[in-house]
Amino acid sequence: MSSTLVFQGAVIFSADSENLEMLENATLIVTDGCISAFYKSPDQIPADAIPQDGQIKRLLPGEFLIPGFVDTHNHAPQWPMRGLGQGLHILDWLSEITFPIEARFADSAYASRIYEQTVDDFLRQGITTASYYGSRHADATKILAKMCHKKGQRAFVGKCNMDRNAPDYIREATASLSLQETEECIQYIRSLPDCASPNNALVKPVVTPRFAISCTPELLQGLGNVVNRDDTLAIQTHFNEAAQEIDATKELFPQFGGSEADLYESYGLLNRRSILAHCTIMTDYEKDRVHGLQCGVAHCPIANMTVGGGFMVAPVRDFLRRGIKVGLGTDSGGGWASGMLSVIRQAMIASNAREAMSEGKDKALSLEEVFYLATLGGCKVLCLEDKIGSFEVGKEFDAVWVRTTTRLESAMTPREEGDSLRRIFEKYIMTGDDRNVANVYVRGRRVAGTDEQ
Ligand code: GUN
Ligand code: FE
Hints:
The structure is a single chain. The strands form two sheets. Strands 6, 7, 8, 9, 10, 11, 12, 13 and 14 form a nine-stranded parallel sheet that branches. Strands 1, 2, 3, 4, 5, 15, 16 and 17 form an eight-stranded mixed sheet that branches. This protein has two domains: 4-67 and 391-448, Urease, subunit C, domain 1, CATH 2.30.40; 69-381, Metal-dependent hydrolases (TIM Barrel, Alpha-Beta Barrel), CATH 3.20.20.140. Helix 2 runs parallel beside helix 3 (138-151) and helix 11 (340-357) packs across helix 12 (367-381). By secondary structure, it is α/β, with parallel strands linked by helices. Helix content is 34%, strand content 22%. The two termini are 22 Å apart. Strand 2 and strand 3 (34-39) form a beta hairpin. It binds guanine and fe (iii) ion.
């Protein structure tokens, strides 16, 4: 039996990277998780368009729907260590803080307990899609994928590959074992209910070499072969993140003359499904290659300006100018936040810094642009723009129902009589929090929210 939801009220989404579509009184009909009709105003609704058996969901004044947030870079096993190790440089932060915490995920009971809280936390804040790095443990990675599936979060889940330059307690013993467990995780994820189709699966596998420093050439080549055999697979890695990392990479792979693009490309790991986290220190050559190879950038401004390498500001304006795909990432736990609103705000701050650093050449990002990065822009990075990221007939319904009239005390700047929808939206983006998230939907299924059900 089909199920139909009919949403009536204010709707906001990105028309493109610079413009928002803001509708005061739209009607969205969602049939079996997909948007089957979309009327921008009541006068457009034909007679009999609203199905008799449809469940009507009326938004009140001060409430609106936005597309669910897309987190293009997230380390699930680092959720319990967010905010730790501020000021450490990347390789020190990994060995002092990160590896000991990720090592705990050898224990499946611990993984189950923490991943339940992790996925709940991101969903509660309206992250309907996340691209997750797991730890290097196959069992824990399967637990993470199953948790996303059970809770209804759209996700990419990858077992982290790392067979060198890490302590014994976390390093994988051999490249072949790492590859074998990677294949095992890919198969497991595809065996989850309705996840066999690379196109339609809610939870998908992603090939996840941590970064070149922690992978032997044999492992990188093996992962490249996996991708080469299956061009539906996404890939994610850290890319030109910080000076310490770039120097160490150059030393380990002198043959690439300092180009991480050439390095990863030579192993077959760069294509339109590659999600490159950070990209803070980018030569024109690196930008050209990333653009030419159609890779996407996961911009993680919180992590970039707190841990890892000091104060790094990615050239996002230049990426957009060049047509490079860009989305936002919490980088939880290099980033301290688990919600996208914090990342959106930090992306604005970072872009202001970039404008100042470039003496006005790289103009700061607008509210419209940062919202785009957190929704439709991220979908492009994950090659999901045909499925989600905005409200259009034929797309799946992943959405956040924002309530600014909340009975819960949110931190949001109060709404005032006469506020336009644009102003209410701006107040929410800049000062709202998870208490404004009334309902979260993925494929039409309610997966989280403060609304009493
Ligand atoms: N580079 C390699 N591993 C990591 C990680 O876990 N977080 C960040 N921010 N950078 C990395
Ligand atoms: Fe990261």
